[in-house]
Amino acid sequence: MNRLRLRKYSQLYLMALPALIYFLVFSIYPVIQGLYMSTQKPLLLGGGVYVGLENYRSVLQDSMFWQALVNTLVLSGGMIALGVSVPLFIAIALHELPFAPLRKLTQTVIYTPHLFSWVVVGGIWIQVLSPDGGLFNELLKLVGLGPVHFLADTVWIKPVLVLLSTWKGMGYNAVIYYAAISSLDPQIYEAATVDGASRWQKISKLTLPLLMPTVGVVFLLSAVGALRIFDQVFILRNAATSRTIDVVMTYVYDKGMREFRLGESTAASFMVTVVGLLTLGFLRKAMNVDDVETS
Amino acid sequence: MRKLFHRHNLSCVILLVVTVLLGSMVASAAPKLRVVSSISGGKTPEESKLFAKEVGEALGLEIEWIQPSGDDYLQTALRGGERFDLIYLNTPFMDVLVDQGALLPLTDFIESSPILSDSTVIPTEEWEMLRYPDGHIYSVFNKYEGGTLPTVRADWLEKLGLDIPETLDDFYEVLKAFKEQDPDGNGKDDTYGLSTAGLYDIQGFMGAFGVKARYVIDEDGRRTIPYASDAAIAAYEWLNKLYREGILDPNFVTNSTAEMRNLFLADRVGMVTYWDMWVGLFNSMRLQDDPNTEFRAMGIPGPVGPNGERILRRGDPSIWAIPRNAQNPEGAKKFLEFWHTEAGIILGSVGVKDYDYIIKPDGTMELTDIGRSHNMDHGVPRWYNTNVKAPFGTLPGVKEAEVFVNKYASLEISGPDWPRAEKIVEDYAFQAITGKMEPAAAVKKMREELLKAKLVDY
Fold first, then answer.
1. Considering only the top CATH level, what class is B148-314+408-452?
2. Secondary structure of residue B402 in the 3-state scheme
3. pLDDT digits (tens, 9 = 90+) for B73-99
């Protein structure tokens, strides 16, 4: 039966082969290499000394790794919460806007930050939040408040990072929500109008419940990337806030590139990958993603 | 006819392929030198090509001069199997490579080299900075490194009728005046007394409290970090006072060195702590912009401590090394000797002939506009070789600053644990300076964490 199926779809399998080879060479092979390296004390001119699980033990005993893990969970928790919810409200608000050109303009403005790299975004906000002539602090000065160095203050830096990440990414998620809202059956809304539902009732009783599968997808996508946050932290961290916002990926970078401990760096990276996969599996199960896909 | 044409075409293709193959064989037969340096070389990719050509002509080698923009490249490339003949390093990375047996020992070569063993080219005692406990030297200096020190606007001092500060109290008064007395005369409250780039170099001030940066190792080999000692508390209190009163640039935490330099050049700050060489570069840059400028930067020693002590920071040596898997180590050694000859020094400082400078009919050198804008720095703004005189003299203010560096500066000890220790030290030091924690409490916590993480012995 299997052989028959193989023969029947042989052309399709053949067409998929280049992609399979690509993944084997550029994804699977480096992963295996990385796993091998995590059991080594790698030498920079090639090769290495086998050290078993020593690198993993060393990482697990490092208080900075645990601090980075806690920071990752706190930051990514905030980023997911706001990153999933704020665009939802924006998308609904956009959909309610009656004037199409204004809607399109707003959409473009909100989406634009997503197109910039974190280097650009970081540069802009470092200027805006600067205590020396930065726009935000000048406004604070106008209302009689003292300058706040948002990017160097251990109390402010986490909320700032979460808000900036939300600001940068909300356009992207808002587009996903907006597309989902636009594809909702208008007859449902017409029926609700006939039944005398108010605008708020339509949003709360129809739009939001109908959007829940999309919210689930956006949540899943955000959660998958949560453990891998790096760019924004790398760009916006400084010596004063480093330990407050260092995440697992910056820990991996520092271990490898600043301390030249490639084995420990790779081991930490693998642990993050395993935790990420477990989280993904758990979320898929909890959200019944597979059931939804097959039904 | 058509067949003949096809046959003719085929023979043409074969001939072309053979020619290309032969050509490439001939090209690869020429001795080649692969050099990686993120600092030395041209200022642009085009100039780097000219630079490589100049080196190649001097050594009779084909040079591939690779100038990565960051430090990460070298580690990644080496691990990725790239083979280089000569690499430009800082000492922490050299420590790792030596530990892994990845560098060729150069002790015998240096001792037998008529150029490098000449104490007028490189002072004999300087080599001890590069010698490892196994007795070997694995690298050769790139340049004379100099050190860092407070650099003050001498014209502002004059304008405000202030003397060069000596004690901590003097420094406070001068910095306060820079903040409050409108030294740039623009009628706005927009100047700061002092700016730094993080804790990159506050050694000049910490020195007044007898506190040395990074590690100090005692006679028994036990490590401590003086920035985490009780002696540092008063230093943090003093810096906190500057921060609280708005004398210290509030952006000092996030400043890059370039941002700090720009503030100084833009009349926004009266004092920075930076390399002695930059005293000259500051003056030169402003003079280029406006030959009538009043701007005058001056290097001064840090405040003197109650027991007469001063500590400045000497720069970690930047060095050249030959990887063990180099394909042309002999060519690399030729380069290392050349780099310390007059021709090498002129190339590393003034730059490329007929690009950065020209030779006039009377035999004297003249800088081109491009050369002038490069400030005589192509990796070697200063050198050890006392036989080579700077063709255009030194930049204004450098010689005077150098005197203080030579008198008070000493090397800092880092070691493989420093990057981890640095995070803890800087975290609490910033909290103390910015007033988030009481300095005494910050130092106590800092020391406790360092001890717990086994990053210090006491």
1. alpha beta
2. helix
3. 998 899 888 999 999 998 888 988 998
